[in-house]
Amino acid sequence: MKITEVKVHLVQSWRKTDHIASPWIFVQVYTDEGVVGLGDATNWPGGTIIKQAIDELGKLIIGEDPFNIELLYHRMYHALQQIGQTGVVIAAISGIEIALWDIVGKTSGQPIYNLIGGVCRDKIRFYSHASTPEECGRLAEKGVTAIKAYFPAAIPDNGEHITTPRSITILEEKQALEHMMRCREVVGDAVDIATDVGCRYSSSAAIRLGNRLEEVGLLFYEEPVSPENIEALARVTASVNVPVCVGERQYTRFGFRDMIASQAVDMIMPDVVRTGGIMESKKIASMAESYYMQVSPHNPNNAVSTVASLHLMANIPNALVLEYVDDEQDAPWRNDLLTDPPLVDNGYLRLPEKPGLGTELVMDVVNKYRFEG
User: Fold this and answer.
1) What domain count does the chain have?
2) So what's the pLDDT on residue 156?
3) Are 353 and 34 in contact (CB under 8 A)?
4) Average pLDDT rounded to a whole number, residues 89-109
């Protein structure tokens, strides 16, 4: 079997970053035996830039055996190393890598999780997003067992748009705590609550806020500070009594290595599309396991990345909970794009059972919502 072609499909999504459209990026890898693999390379912003990277990387694997995933990954990884091995490059590689696993699974007649070591669990717990206590209540009524609740950003209304980490006032601390406690009161103790502050604060502010939020009983405290400064992140983690996690801004095992080894966080959140694909994510999870860290993958993208994440989560022993956005919180055509979209079962996602990823693109829907920007 040989790879004959790599295609990219940009599809409309509802996400915008600073008014820049961020389409979903689907990858199809074709073979001379008629088997077609499906992958996801979505990152934001800049879908057209990622498409260009995939077009260039695709030239490197034409004529190759799709089963040689490790070899092809390294070929792509090193081919573009001079322009950086994060962001656009790794998203492009991830999309192709996932598609290669889909080919191997389809050819072997096995779901991907069986090819990387089998299952440690037969269903995957997920968490959903909410901005108000009322939304938390509606999710809990639907059977969701974990919620990431956002409190008001409290950005000063002074016309500034600077996102440099900043301090926090006593009033903001109080408002954040009151908001999160209302969320807790609505759902009770049977539902886990987490929060994400998006690297908004300075180290001292993140510590103050984290300790105020301790009484909420957080499942995790996401991105209290940016992960680029591991020492600052470690200081926050050591100073608060809530589990600290980061990961969506890190790429490949090399991006996670020092953070894990220094135990600068309590858990990690790799994104299967931002780390290099399924196998690279598994390697990152294995590193974390040796430090007794759990894994809660970042996954706010489309249904293909969710399916790929399910295969990973089924396999790794230190999986905790998967981020999940359904079609009620996203573009209504989200699940229509797939023949077999993720299936929700009372706060959990069922594992795909068909070979490979276990799903295909519905090309009529892809064409209907194709992004032409």
Assistant:
1) 2
2) 47
3) no
4) 97
What CATH number does the domain containing 173 carry?
3.20.20.120
Question: pLDDT digits over 58-89, tens only?
Answer: 999 999 999 999 999 999 999 988 888 888 99
Cα separation of the two ends of the chain = 35
* Residue-by-residue DSSP string for 302-340: -HHHHHHHHHHHHH-TTB--EE---TTSS-TTTGGGBSS
In a domain, 78, yes or no: yes
**Does residue 348 register a pLDDT over 60?**
yes
0.85 cut: is pTM over it? yes
Confidence band, pLDDT 50/70/90 cuts, at residue 312: very high
Q: What confidence score (pLDDT) does residue 155 get?
A: 45
89: Cα separation from own chain's centroid:
16
Same domain? For 292 and 316 the reply is: yes
Give tens-digit pLDDT for 289-303.
999 999 999 999 899
Q: Are both 63 and 132 inside the same structural domain?
A: no
Domain that holds residue 39: 3-111
DSSP string, 31-42: ETTS-EEEEE--
Residue 157 has pLDDT above 70, yes or no: no
Residue 54 lies in a domain: yes
Helix pair 69-79, 87-108: axis angle to 10 deg: 160
DSSP H helical ranges for the chain: 47-61, 69-79, 87-108, 112-115, 133-141, 170-187, 203-212, 230-239, 252-261, 278-289, 303-315, 363-368
Sort strands 24-31 and 36-40 into parallel, antiparallel or unpaired.
antiparallel
Lowest mean pLDDT, pick from 5-19, 205-219, 222-236: 5-19
Residue in 10, 100, 78, 73 with CA at minimum distance from that of residue 46? 10
Q: In this structure, is residue 361 part of a structural domain?
A: no
Q: Do 30 and 6 contact (CB within 8 A), yes or no?
A: yes
Same domain, 188 and 296: yes
Residues 121, 92, single domain; the answer is: no
Give the three-state DSSP class for 182: helix
User: Within a domain: residue 367?
Assistant: no
**At 257, phi and psi to the nearest 5?**
-55, -60
Q: Is the alpha carbon torsion for 90, 93, 95, 98 positive or negative?
A: negative
